[in-house]
User: Fold 33 kDa chaperonin from Methylomonas koyamae.
Amino acid sequence: MKQQDCLRRFIFEEHGVRGEWVRLRTSLAAAKQHQRIVDDAVDAQMGQALAAAVLLAATIKFKGAMIMQIQGGGELKAVVAQASSDRKIRGLVRSADSVGGTNLREMIGEGGRLVLTVESENAEPYQGIVGVEADTLAEVLEVYFKQSEQLNTRLWLFADRDTAAGLLLQELPGEQKDPADWERLEMLAATVTAEEMFALDCEELLYRLFHQEKVRIFEAEAVEFKCNCSRQKIAGTLAALGRSELHAILQERDDIEVDCQFCGAQYSFDKIDVENLLANPAAETETNPPTRH
Assistant:
């Protein structure tokens, strides 16, 4: 059985370079289940974004989540991909009924930007922004790393309707390195194809690319779709709207219904619920569990 829905880390100990490989299938299908995806091009962008989010989250030592948002004024309005430190993923996509363009820059349109947010349980959120001025998500992320991290970083991202896969190489910080080593590894990795990323397991792929190098591969880490929405989080969002806004909504309907855009879960708050959460937002619990599509 092929390695699916897992992340593999590896390291070139002699050259001060680390790498990651990821392939998503079941988790990808689950993440896309509640999204309206109009064509294969949009589907591929979401798949690549989810693979990239897993790779990026694994480069940072933290307990929390990496959130990647791509947005602009084009027909592809937004792509959001989130990966947590324990390898849980979710994502969403928003687009027009038809999306033209042959690459990310054309699809996302004027003013396109990529926002990376690191949410840590032990620190304030960190956010970085870069313009979408390259044709592919991998290239945009490489520009981000060059500007913000100042570490040589290369990504290769592939996705079709069924599978998303990614490969990342990055220099380790604070080590003396021979630039020729990085250039050689980068050149070898750049020969990778979508067919190989979809068909070969991590060990097979690394042997194909780097059979003359000494590579240490770590154990597989499972990746799965899981949405972290909850009634309590939705209640906090509603409470932030304020009493007058919530009462105005309830004058038009008997209750307030909120759907999670990531997983389709539905949360309903009647007038008594709203009064309770306004009086004490932190006390709102899962007394009325959500229904799902």
Remarks:
- The two ends are 32 Å apart (CA to CA).
- The chain has two domains: 6-225, 231-283.
